[in-house]
Hints:
Layout: H1 6-22, H2 33-41, H3 45-60, H4 81-97, H5 128-142, H6 146-161, H7 173-176, H8 179-193, H9 200-213, E1 220-224, E2 240-244, E3 247-255, H10 261-273, E4 279-283, H11 292-297
Parallel strand pairs: 3-4
Antiparallel strand pairs: 1-2, 2-3
Helix pairs in contact: 1-3, 1-4, 1-6, 2-5, 2-6, 3-4, 3-5, 3-6
Amino acid sequence: MLKIDHSTAERVLKEATEKVKSQRPYKTESPLSDSIGKVISGTHLTFRYILLTGLLAKAVEPKINPLCLQAGAPLKGAYDARSLCHKVIVPNEQSLLSGKLGGSNEPFLNKPARFTHLSVENAVRKGSDLETLKLVISILGNAVLKKEAVSALQDCIFHILQRQERAIVGTSERALSSADNSCAIKNILDIFLSKSYEGETSVIVVGTLLKMLYAADAEVAVKTHPTNEAGSSSKEVCDIDIVSQDKTLMGAEVKDKNYSQHDIAHAVNKAVESGLTKMMFIKGLCWSPKMKQVVRESPFP
């Protein structure tokens, strides 16, 4: 397995972005530019992240194989693409690329990125998804030299910057930064949450906030479930499930009442049995302060 120095990768990403922004007009350099533009202008968010990550990795370390997605890939030049994307690209996307890549906080959790490496044998939807997969494989497979990868990386950044800026859901940036607006929203939520209705109001609020968080990712669906629905007789994992292509990525259990260590254990065990690697346990306004000791002593995360 090869390792990518994240500090170096961040520097290369910033330098490439600055070079693209400084050229007016920018002239594409890579023979792969048209193909890169098709992927970046497409609707599949995950492939955009995969493409940029692969080009960045190759521009930093020529020995890596940009077709690899995981360190355990059965190919020479394997590396941890997910770590590079989540620790370098995601934190810098807003400042460098105005969030135009897609604004996802964990893009490699989606199905196209959950394979060890890119291959036409990967299980993706037929049609446009399969064609995009083939296009990404062609681009990364042809960027074999560092110089080619650098020019392709710059062209990729150029095409990303041509995308429309993501709309902020339901309000404007100015409204989001307004203290008065924040207070007004908090007051509305306090009134709404003042009555539990068997925990329904808390689930509605948390579900709405999660829907806003993932609104820009067309591949992700946030599913809320009735709080009085028997988990054993339903398809739910938690009160709120975050799903991508019929696979639950993460869950949120919402308790708007006193709960015990057993309740925490039950929620965690159900999440583990369902194959989840992480979940959220959220307390509502009706949670009693006397429960702090129980939560602190719980052996569960």
